Amino acid sequence: MINRQQSLLFTTLLVTVTFLSLQRMAFAHPSHASYAEIERDGGTFNVALSATPEDLERALSLLAGESVTLVDSPRVRVWLTNYLTEHFVLSDAQRQRIATPPAIELVGMELGYRDTWIYFSIDGSGIADPVLTNTILMDLEATQTNRVKRLWEPNAPTLLFTTSEPERSLEVSVP
After folding, report:
1. Which of 40, 49, 48 is nearest to 127 (CA)?
2. Among the listed residues 109, 104, 133, the one whose alpha carbon sits nearest the alpha carbon of residue 119
3. What is the mean pLDDT of residues 125-139?
4. Is the model's pLDDT at 8 over the cut of 70?
5. Sheet holding 104-110, edge to edge
6. Range with the poorest average pLDDT among 35-44, 63-72, 94-103, 142-151
7. What's the per-residue H, E or C state across the chain?
8. Model's pTM, two decimal places?
9. How many CA atoms lie less than 13 Å away from 44 in the CB half-sphere?
């Protein structure tokens, strides 16, 4: 038979464990970062973007106005294309967005538990000295950092995008 003191101890323990579990879920991953590799093929930029799936789901849910599960479906592809069009933007050298943004074509996805890879291409024909604005997931997390590796110049440093510096030139400077 359980006495009142044991019952109170059990209840306190249960509340503490529940609180700690909920707190851990709220901070499921302490770092918020994406990584992209970008390849230039004439006027087309081919991109492979890796991000945390639950962050992508949160961003797409915010955009869609409903809960979105990250699956490869026509609806998710539309939301994802719209999100990329808004947050992964090519512009001209004067850092002014072109009147009609370059078209993004979603090529495919590799959905994983820890990382999801999104493959897409951007029509950058007619853009001289392209500048990339990369605000992927920055609308959800102020500490989000995004890295982009330009594959056409293997010795070029990886570009770092933050909320305070979301734009970078894609041109490789020659020292």
Report:
1. 40
2. 109
3. 90
4. no
5. 104-110, 116-123, 44-51, 33-41, 145-150, 159-161
6. 94-103
7. CCCHHHHHHHHHHHHHHHHHHHHHHHCCCCCCEEEEEEEEECCEEEEEEEECHHHHHHHHHHHHCCCCCCCCCHHHHHHHHHHHHHHEEEECCCCCCCCCCCCEEEEEEECCCCCEEEEEEEECCCCCCCEEEECCCCCCCCCCEEEEEECCCCCCCCEEECCCCCEEECCCCCC
8. 0.78
9. 8
Which two structure tokens, joined as six digits, stand for 169?
Answer: 């030139």
Averaged pLDDT, 74-86? 95
Rounded Cα distance between 49 and 144, Å, is 14
Q: pLDDT, tens digit, for every residue of 146-175? A: 999 999 988 889 999 999 999 999 986 544
